UniProtKB/TrEMBL annotation:
It is found in: Cell membrane. Part of the SecDF-YidC-YajC translocase complex. The SecDF-YidC-YajC translocase forms a supercomplex with SecYEG, called the holo-translocon (HTL). It holds the Pfam family YajC. Keywords: Cell membrane, Membrane, Protein transport, Translocation, Transmembrane, Transmembrane helix, Transport. It is a single-pass membrane protein. NCBIfam families: yajC (TIGR00739). The SecYEG-SecDF-YajC-YidC holo-translocon (HTL) protein secretase/insertase is a supercomplex required for protein secretion, insertion of proteins into membranes, and assembly of membrane protein complexes. While the SecYEG complex is essential for assembly of a number of proteins and complexes, the SecDF-YajC-YidC subcomplex facilitates these functions. This is Sec translocon accessory complex subunit YajC. The chain crosses the membrane at residues 20-40. The gene is yajC. It comes from the Bacteria. Belongs to the YajC family. Signal peptide: none annotated.
Length: 112
C-alpha cells in the first residue's frame, strides 16, 4: 500500500504543476478515509457511548446479561459493581464493565 502511495507521489511530483498533482494523487485516499470514517468508525463510537450510558444507568430490578452470557436481575448497585440474582437465592457480584446488555429497565431507584 505504501508502494502505491509513493508511486502516485512520484508521478505527481514529475508533473510541472506539482502542487495540484499531489492534491489529485491524494484525493482518492482522503475520500476513502472519509467514507471509512462515516461508515465504520463513527457508528462504532456511537454504539460504545450508548452501551456505556446503559451500563451506567442500571438500577435495581433491571434484567442484565453478563459478558459470560449469564442472565439475571439486578438486586443492588454500587459505583463499580452490581449484585445480580441469577437464580432464586443465588446472587453474584459483577463488575459493571462486564455487563454486556441491559434487557429491561425499571423505574425503581437503586438500593431501595
Amino acid at each position: 500500500m505504501t508502494d502505491i502511495l509513493l508511486q502516485t507521489l512520484a508521478a505527481a511530483s514529475a508533473n510541472p504543476n506539482s502542487a495540484s498533482g499531489i492534491f489529485f494523487a491524494l484525493a482518492p485516499w482522503l475520500l476513502i478515509f472519509v467514507i471509512f470514517y462515516v461508515l465504520m468508525i463513527r457508528p462504532q463510537q456511537q454504539r460504545v457511548k450508548q452501551h456505556q450510558a446503559a451500563i451506567a444507568a442500571i438500577k435495581k430490578g433491571d434484567e442484565v446479561v453478563t459478558g459470560g452470557g449469564i442472565r439475571g436481575r439486578v438486586t443492588k448497585v454500587t459505583d463499580d459493581e452490581a449484585e445480580v440474582e441469577i437464580a432464586q437465592g443465588v446472587k453474584v457480584r459483577v463488575v459493571k464493565g462486564t455487563l454486556s446488555q441491559v434487557l429491561t429497565k425499571s423505574a425503581k431507584p437503586a438500593n431501595d
